[in-house]
Amino acid sequence: MTSAVEAQGLRKAFRDFTLKDVTFSLPQGYIMGLVGRNGAGKTTTIRLILNMLARDAGAVRVLGMDTIRDEQRIKQDVGVVFDENFFVESWRVSEVERALKGFYSRWSSKEFGRYLKDFGLPADKRLKELSRGMKLKLMLAVAMSHQARLLILDEPTSGLDPVARDELLRILSAYISDGERTVLFSTHITTDLERIADFITLLHEGAVFYTGTKDDLLESYRIVKGGPADLTDRLREKMVGLERTSTGFSGLINASELTHLPGRILAEAPSIDDILVRISAGNTNATENRDRDGHRE
Q: Which range of residues forms the domain containing residue 53?
């Protein structure tokens, strides 16, 4: 499959955080969710892809082009939506087109007008009068009116109500329906991704924990549950995000380990949120931390 985005060994060090050799590939015509808890490196990764930060190491290709050598060509093909509005708040909606269309060789005023109508955006309203959801739709209208082949969105659903989030997901699904356009979608609201994402790249503490199809991610792990007597040392070593109570335990385990478990232990399919929460917790016990010999830490 042709890749819309290829990131290879991306590294960026800050005083208190390091993005470590992030590598993933997003095939053309699909939606990838870039997920992880706040501070995992999602925004840093996106800013490196867009050359908004200087990378310490690594390479990025977008639509087959090198993001440094071919930066100006790539900008014609990429639409970007951040979690905050970067347009001038005193502008009217109609003035946004006048300010931006000169930067794009394939800008379509007809398309922009159609998106304003479809999204219910009044041309005479000032941006400061728009709701967060309407500002988001305006940024999408701009991105799609210059025929962008790749949309990159950083936490676009943060702060939106469920109705506005549902509308955004429908827009993105329709956007890629021709098989030629692609979406990279950073979010910590994983229920959105379970609806529309084809691929997932999960970041944890600045590194890639998983990258691949959403279905493979969900099939690769299980939430296991059992009584206190079922928690052996071997099982404890294999689990991530172990939680113990007086009546039993639960934790995340690789599905390949299921054949080694006693039959009385229950195994359930996780959600993306389950996986994210458990790996963020690591091997700590949510109710009582103990060392391997069972003593309190």
A: 3-205
